[in-house]
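Hi team,

Below is the intake form for Lactose phosphotransferase system repressor from Saccharopolyspora thermophila. Please confirm the fields before the structure is written into the shared record.

FORM ID: S-0412
PROTEIN: Lactose phosphotransferase system repressor
ORGANISM: Saccharopolyspora thermophila
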Amino acid sequence: MYAEERQRVILERARAAGRVDVAALAAEFGLTYETVRRDLTALERHGVLRRVHGGAIPIERLGFEPGFATRDATLTAEKERIAKAALAEVPQEGAILLDAGSTTGRLAEQLPTDRELTVVTNSLTIAFTLSARPNITLMLLGGRLRGRTLATVDDWALQALHDTFVEVAFVGTNGVSAERGMTTPDSSEAMIKRASIRCARRTVLLADHTKVGNDHFARFGSLDEVDTFITDSGVDQRLVHDIEAAGPRVIVV
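The structure came back. Fields below:
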């Protein structure tokens, strides 16, 4: 078994059981303790596990939400591929919404320069990325700024979204599963994501494979509200089939 495949199995075990132990994994896979520790360290760098004494715990079980800089630095190649695939969903003109997130941020960087677009966003980083683009009319939602995600939330942002209509909402998520739909750790961000979906003609969900099969505290939508889901090739194909059965077209890149 390759290291990447083994790490995927370790992550699945951790999410199912709530933790994994170095000794048990070493015995199961016939590995040294040091090799298992390297696997756990690699998964921690990807932002999906937190190392603890003797093993590791999945971050969602701890209620842990990585900061924006941490998330932006993980799985960069996968996020770039997802963003490039999402360009096919950008209209020739009109209004789109870019939800706060590291993958939607990659899409903002790649938006075409030859189209006149109105971009609505609650992301401070996306706003900075697009602020100097002459072909973009930028609409930054106001509200309380969450330092962890650099996203605006709460009533000011919600009120603006209630009076907004866009062609496509590009939405990120911390977790997506056929059973729970789309989830995120923070209830205030869940409210903004929910309103973003409701103000759009179409919704495109962008999420790397570590989010798939994962559930968090606050649910903000069901999969039948998503038109297209774009993820990367690290995803478990069984989970892809389950998600497709729940409604959206799934694109794996």
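SUMMARY LINE: Residues 23 and 229 are 38 Å apart (CA to CA).

Thanks, M.
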